[in-house]
Amino acid sequence: MSDWKTRTRLVHEGVRRSGYGEVSEAIFLTQGFVYDTAEQAEARFQAAGEDEYIYARYGNPTVRMFEERIAGLEGTEDGFALASGMAAVNAALTSMLRAGDHVVSSRALFGSCLYILEEILPRFGVEVTFVDGTDVDQWRRAVRRGTKAVFFETVSNPVLEVIDVAAVAEIAHGVGATVIADNVFATPIFSRAVEQGVDVVVYSATKHIDGQGRALGGVVLGTREFIRKTLEPYVKHTGAAMSPFTAWIMLKGMETLDLRVRAQSATAQRLAEALDGDARVSVIYPGLPRHPQHDLAMRQMGQGGTVLSLDIAGGQPAAFRFLNALEVVTISNNLGDAKSIVTHPATTTHQRLPDEAKAALGITPGLVRLSAGLEDPDDLVADLRRALDAI
């Protein structure tokens, strides 16, 4: 398996076949497991071996197939699947932190990630320092001896700032801190997070991994020591387990993940280039040479990714007219879907933030986030231009 290329791993990694020899992965839709004897039950609760299961909240064969497949793709020793992307972010942080610990985080984050770091962790005595994630000197000043973890989105949502992962990881490791990265926008296909120094990688499987808007899911990836000794006990006892049916959906999504993400990224690049220079809109996309972190994005990912943001001249009224005029692109708040999706962050995903906080993050009243789908790029370009004309 170590010699397999990405597309082969996405189809075959982690497969477990039952005695029936099924081609498609089986769904083990059960919450419990049977023991031959009381002694066997006792032994399994003391130390479950490979492919030995106790309860679906602790693990399940279908879920384990998904965990092994995504860990093999990412290049980590192990992984643990959870019920949603935010359950994964919360578990990755909370499982390792306690009162008195210090965390440094980039300021530009998804709204729910900000809530965990601004509201939940401080409530339990964790000190959190926020920095401009693109400023390496701010990371260097904020991280101190005793800092327990650093957290960032490798590409931020929704303003698409790109973090210098290797530089931040070097700073964090210098004081013994764990590097935790939400890697959704980089995707598992363009990710080199582990190679660049990330210790714990988090994905919302709801996005590109499913890729067809069907199910919520999340996964945390890292060393076997972190996953089994730190994360697993927390998740087992707090209950954010992924269902076997969801894991099966994610396995099916992964079979086409490479094909979809590369096509979506190519489309996003096409859309960004088509609209760049139009006076009615400012295009934010790491694949454009004028993006502030373009060179860094190319070094880290090799692509600009599947998402671009558009700052519509005329503020919220113009942005709403633009959204309402779209015919092909769908208004929703997901991303990474087969369908192209657009949202207005200031009034949806980041609406709870005060206006000054939005302004500091670059979330203007005219900003819309566009996730490129699998439609014909020519149809999407025409749809966006038609919507701009409607303003």
Walk me through what this model shows.
It is a single chain. The chain contains 15 helices and 12 strands. It is an alpha/beta fold and 391 residues long. It has 2 domains: 6-255, Aspartate Aminotransferase, domain 2 (3-Layer(aba) Sandwich), CATH 3.40.640.10; 257-390, Aspartate Aminotransferase, domain 1. It has a 7-stranded mixed beta sheet, sandwiched between helices. It has a 5-stranded mixed beta sheet with strand order 8-9-12-11-10. α5 links the parallel β2 (102-106) and β3. The longest helix has 19 residues, at 257-275. The radius of gyration is 21 Å and the shape is globular. The termini are far apart.
